[in-house]
C-alpha cells in the first residue's frame, strides 16, 4: 500500500518540488496540495491521508494551528517544514502533535526517508533539527521544572522510566537496547508501554512529557 500524502506550503515552487519528489516514489502518493493552513486541514478531511507535510509558517491558518486541528481530528501524522533549525514556533508545533521536522533545504533522499519513517508511526528526532530543538524549547518554555518526577510517571516500571529518559536524550531503539543490554524487541515493548500508560501519541510527545514532568532536564547525562 502507498503512503498517502498531502503537501502544504504557501510557496508554489517548493510545494510542487516536494510533491514531484514524493510522487516519483513507488510507495508514496501525493493525493493533494494546499497553499495555506486552512486548505491543508480541508485536504486532510477530504482525502484522509497518512501524512501531512506542512510548512510551519502558513497564511490564513498558521501551520501550528493546522497541525493541532489535524492531530485532534484524525490519525494523520504531521511532518513539519521549517526554514531555520531553531524556529521560534517549533516547540508549539511539537505540543500541537507534530511528529517530526525537516529543514526546507532537506536533501531528496532525506525527505523521502522522513515521510516513510513518520508515516510508519515513528517520530523523526532528526539530528539536524529535533534533538537540539527539544532541549532548547523545553528549557525556555518550562524553566521551573520539578525537582523530582511528576506523579504521572508512577505508573511506569523502573525499566520503562529509564527507557523514557533515553528517549528524551534522542536515543534510537538500537542505542537504548545496547545501553540497557536487552533486545530491540524488549525496547519496543518498553516504548509501547510508556506511550500507552502516559496516553501519548508518539516518541516526540514522550520527550516533551519527560522534560515537562521533570523526568529529565536539558543536559541530564543519564
Automatic annotation (TrEMBL):
Q: Which residues form the HTH luxR-type domain?
A: 149-214
User: Response regulatory domain spans which residues?
Assistant: 4-119
| A Pfam family matched in the record | Response_reg
Residues that the record marks as modified (4-aspartylphosphate) are 55
InterPro entries the record matches = CheY-like_superfamily, NreC/VraR/RcsB-like_REC, Sig_transdc_resp-reg_receiver, Tscrpt_reg_LuxR_C, WalR-like
- Keywords on record: DNA-binding, Phosphoprotein, Transcription, Transcription regulation
Q: What PROSITE patterns is this protein classified in?
A: HTH_LUXR_1, HTH_LUXR_2, RESPONSE_REGULATORY
Give the protein name, as stated in the record: Response regulator
Amino acid at each position: 500500500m502507498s503512503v498517502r500524502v498531502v503537501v502544504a506550503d504557501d510557496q508554489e515552487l517548493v510545494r510542487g518540488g516536494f510533491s514531484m519528489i514524493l510522487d516519483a516514489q513507488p510507495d508514496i502518493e501525493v493525493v493533494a496540495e494546499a497553499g495555506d493552513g486552512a486548505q491543508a486541514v480541508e485536504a486532510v478531511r477530504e482525502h484522509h491521508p497518512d501524512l501531512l507535510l506542512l510548512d510551519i509558517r502558513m497564511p490564513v491558518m498558521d501551520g501550528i494551528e493546522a497541525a493541532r486541528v489535524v492531530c485532534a481530528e484524525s490519525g494523520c501524522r504531521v511532518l513539519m517544514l521549517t526554514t531555520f533549525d531553531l524556529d521560534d514556533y517549533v516547540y508549539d508545533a511539537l505540543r500541537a502533535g507534530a511528529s517530526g521536522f525537516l529543514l526546507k533545504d532537506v536533501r531528496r533522499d532525506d525527505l523521502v526517508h522522513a515521510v516513510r519513517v513518520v508515516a510508519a508511526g515513528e517520530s523523526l528526532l532528526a539530528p539536524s533539527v529535533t534533538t537540539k530543538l527539544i532541549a532548547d524549547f523545553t528549557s525556555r518554555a518550562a524553566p521551573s521544572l520539578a525537582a523530582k518526577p511528576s506523579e504521572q510517571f508512577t505508573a511506569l516500571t523502573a525499566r520503562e522510566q529509564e527507557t523514557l529518559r533515553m528517549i528524551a536524550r534522542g536515543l534510537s531503539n538500537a542505542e537504548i537496547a545496547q545501553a540497557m543490554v536487552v533486545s530491540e524487541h524488549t525496547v519496543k515493548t518498553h516504548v509501547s508501554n510508556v506511550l500507552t500508560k502516559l496516553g501519548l501519541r508518539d516518541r516526540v510527545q514522550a520527550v516533551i512529557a519527560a522534560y515537562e514532568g521533570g523526568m529529565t532536564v536539558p543536559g541530564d547525562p543519564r
